[in-house]
Design goal:
Low-confidence stretches of chain B: none
Oligomer: heterotrimer
Distance between the termini of chain A: 12 Å
Largest sheet of chain B: 6 strands, antiparallel
Largest sheet of chain A: none
Number of strands of chain B: 6
Strand content of chain A: under 5%
Shape of chain B: elongated
Mean pLDDT of chain B: 82
Strand content of chain B: 15-25%
Number of strands of chain A: 0
Mean pLDDT of chain A: 83
Order of helices and strands of chain B: HEEEEEEHH
Shape of chain A: globular
């Protein structure tokens, strides 16, 4: 039940992109085509889940026992950079076409604040789900939370890419073309997602 | 231009950079630790002071368990005489956790309340920090005479318009603090 | 100051404005601009990291092997961010609480790594410092303007000075308003940029 609440909360109520603004740069960057958006979502889900797993363990068994919490930011970002490199190498071998399509955005997952944001949130913030007491997440909850958050991000990305493909065909005023109209659409999408607040 | 990318160079370079940076951060950490602790202590002291009557020395944090849930509290005392208790109480509002500091005098009345942190909607639930009519009704609240829940639920608390869930959470937090107070007194 | 140096400094204001033209660093731009003061503080925090990391990176770039340059740059940036984090926790705890997670997230602000990669690693120390200052000021300016617009519309105040009683159009201090306000500001910016 608790896990179910975490999943609903992370995907809909506190959608990382539409309610917390994390990962906006690649969101605007890769969402103009549905196929790239799908590929990017997959990569992000993988990186966020694994990065959170690894950083949680590093924080708990390395940084805290030695009193090195002040190295959190540096340690986490290095873990993420390494993971991204691994994804890049694997993807190059398995699916060169997807690797081509994601192009410069793959290394940019390193600087996708959603990844570092989730990793830092999990180890520093207290969460409440469905009327339970506020508490720090344990390992299982952290990984589920990270995975669900990433799914929420991917969902927002794919939804938005679909919208943008249609926007391209519409006759919008010249000054609004491209990013400005995309941002305004995104605002309306965020407004729709506000309807979920208070659900969990 | 850039140095050659052979293994020795890369390892050397990364190790050196990491060492220098961690050393720098270690120094910075040692240097700012005292001011950071002081800043945090000041914030805590201010939030406790806001809900308690003046005078009295504030104790260090103590813990009381109510129904299995631990909550933090502070005692303000003048010599041996207890002036009041400040109890930290967290419940779940509309947007997430709502944490209050509740001051309670030894006769069991609520002295004052203040919000430590919240994630309520601006303009609706967030009014619990700014709507004077709402938060001032907890000032001097006597839980033995009145009921700590919103009028909709049969209590004596006027809810904020369109923010019943936040008002409920606020009332519940105060109620939990009163329960914690009873446990402390019973000890 | 020679004309070239002046140009490096001022290009970030308008021609290569990080928010409106380069579309970089959008996360803090949207998340922290609930008021003009918050926007300004976030801008200045980024400016601090940008200038220092640009200086250090331009100094060490020739010594760094090509294949590991990204991790090295990130470590340098993360160091300055953590230093900033400690300083803010110690001396401006209220502002630190407001900006919260977005201070450590300066590490992954694409502007900082972007400038390190595109400018500081190829240019001298003085030029890199000027570049950091210019881009940083441009960023601070956009954040303050966006914060001001959202504050005026959303809470009916400017820099904390309230000029209408009651609430404003609350949607502008919430998430959707951030996107919409930025979208319209971008249109305005495009319009002005086209004319000049």
């Amino acid at each position: 039940m608790e896990y179910f609440l975490i999943i609903i909360s992370a995907i809909f109520v506190n959608n990382i992109m539409l309610a917390q603004f994390l990962g906006t740069c690649p969101f605007i960057g890769v969402s103009s085509k549905l196929s790239t958006a799908t590929g990017m979502s997959g990569a992000v889900v993988f990186v966020i889940t694994f990065a959170t797993l690894v950083t949680y363990l590093i924080n708990k068994f390395l940084l805290i026992p030695f009193g090195l919490e002040f190295l959190q930011t540096i340690a986490f970002i290095l873990v993420i950079a390494t993971l991204v490199q691994i994804v890049e190498i694997v993807l190059k071998k398995i699916s060169p076409s997807l690797y081509q399509a994601l192009g410069i955005f793959l290394p940019l997952i390193t600087t996708n604040c959603a990844v570092l944001g989730v990793a830092l949130n999990v180890v520093t913030k207290e969460f409440t789900f469905g009327g339970g007491a506020a508490h720090m997440l344990n390992l299982g909850e952290s990984v589920v939370y990270a995975f669900a958050t990433a799914i929420g991000y991917g969902m927002a990305l794919i939804l938005f890419a679909g919208l943008r493909e249609h926007l391209e065909l519409n006759d919008v005023p010249k000054q609004f073309k491209g990013v400005p109209i995309a941002l305004i659409t995104c605002g309306i999408l965020a407004m729709a997602f506000m309807g979920f607040s208070g659900l969990v | 231009m850039a140095a050659k990318s052979n293994l020795t160079n890369m390892v050397l370079c990364l190790t050196a950079v990491c060492l220098v940076c961690s050393a720098l951060l270690g120094c910075m950490y040692a240097l700012t630790k005292a001011p950071i602790d002081k800043a945090n202590a000041d914030i805590l002291k201010a939030s406790i002071g806001a809900v308690l009557p003046d005078g009295g020395d504030i104790s260090d944090a103590r813990e009381v368990k109510v129904g299995g849930q631990p909550s933090e509290y502070y005692v303000s005392s003048n010599g041996d005489e207890v002036v009041a208790y400040a109890i930290k109480s967290t419940t779940v509002g509309f947007g997430g956790p709502l944490t209050l500091m509740v001051g309670i005098t030894p006769d069991g009345n609520v002295y004052n309340t203040s919000v430590l942190s919240h994630t309520e909607t601006p303009g609706l639930g967030a009014k619990c920090t700014s709507d004077e009519h709402f938060y001032s009704q907890f000032k001097g609240f006597d839980p033995s005479q009145k009921i700590l829940s919103v009028k909709k639920d049969g209590g004596d608390v006027d809810a904020i318009t369109a923010s019943t869930i936040t008002s409920r959470a606020y009332s519940l937090a105060v109620k939990n603090a009163v329960e914690a107070f009873k446990t402390i007194k019973g000890e | 100051m020679s004309k070239r140096k002046l140009n490096i400094f001022t290009k970030g204001f308008f021609k290569e404005n990080p928010t409106f033209v380069l579309l970089l660093g959008l996360c803090p731009t949207l998340a922290t601009t609930t008021s003009a003061i918050n926007g300004l503080s976030m801008g200045l925090a980024t400016l601090f990291v940008l200038v220092l990391s640009n200086i250090v990176i331009s100094a060490i770039a020739p010594l760094v092997p090509d294949k590991v340059h990204i991790p090295v740059y990130i470590v340098v940036i993360a160091t300055f961010v953590t230093i900033l984090q400690f300083a803010m926790q110690a001396y401006t705890p209220d502002m630190y609480k407001t900006l919260g997670l977005f201070i450590p997230l300066i590490v992954v602000n694409c502007i900082v790594l972007g400038r390190a990669e595109a400018f500081a690693s190829k240019n001298g120390i003085v030029d890199s410092a000027l570049d950091g200052l210019g881009i940083g000021f441009g960023f601070t300016m956009s954040l303050t303007v966006l914060g001001l617009v959202r504050e005026i519309l959303g809470s009916g105040s400017a820099f904390g000075w309230k000029f209408i009683s009651g609430d404003g159009l609350l949607v502008f201090v919430m998430a959707p308003g951030a996107f919409i306000a930025l979208g319209y500001l971008m249109v305005l910016f495009n319009k002005i940029a086209k004319k000049s």
